[in-house]
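Example 3.2
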Amino acid sequence: MRELTILLASPRGFCAGVTRAVQIVSTALRRYGTPVYVRHEIVHNKYVVQKLADEGAIFVNELDEVPDNSVVIFSAHGVPLSVEEEAKRRNLITIDATCPLVEKVHKEALKNYREGRKTLLIGHKGHIEVIGTMGQVPETEIKLISSEEDVDLIPKEWNNVGYVTQTTLSIDETANVIDKIKSKFANIVKPHENDICYATTNRQRAVKAIAEKCDMLMVIGAPNSSNSKRLVEVAKAEGCTNSILVQRADEIDIEQLKNVKVLGLTAGASAPEELVKEVITFLSKYFDITLSEYTEIMEKVRFPLPSNLVD
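Structure, written as tokens:
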């Protein structure tokens, strides 16, 4: 067998918000029994969603698919206030799995509104987290900024503004957008702390550290996972242009690795470690593998379960 060095990036995989969200669904199923409904994918990973579905969770797109008086869980990405209000009106038992770091962004947008400021939200159009954040305030009070070019489209009358960001963005690209916003609004109110979450930041930094050492970098994650796609982009920007995203081992084309001697391997924040092990096991059928691990930082963040799930 040909030799292949796999350089594992760490941290990788589940973050504290994802771990908490998955625990919430499992705990709710034990407490309430089936059915328990979940609005949207609890996290962006089909493997995780299927495992929870096998336990008895029912995933729906909107609340109108949930029978009255049922238990419904809001995903880790957060929901607009209108969804919360509809759930109350219908007497649904709600459990909020919104990541606390996403909730922080919600509170910042609401604070801007209450203090008379408009909010600029830096994020990707259509992403479920962005939809949830924009739904915290009236639509006339918040504007989505997806690129530096969008900064030029901010209405001239918007002179009292604050900004927030989606939690799973590229650190470098977001910094460029923020710099342009600050150049246009000298007195803009910034978040109390950086909105890009610690897990996104740490995973991007770990990829940056190993990218130039790899012939290929493989990210395990879903195509609708923002933080996973950003890892591919970061690797390419750091010089490892041969960087790909795969969901499972069965998506790997061995032919793509024929000239690869060092493979960088990481996983997005919603991809569990068992998928990393699955990929390594799959590759070991074709290569004599040497594992090496680079650790950027040790993560110790933990988030408690919602009070209505704690005994």
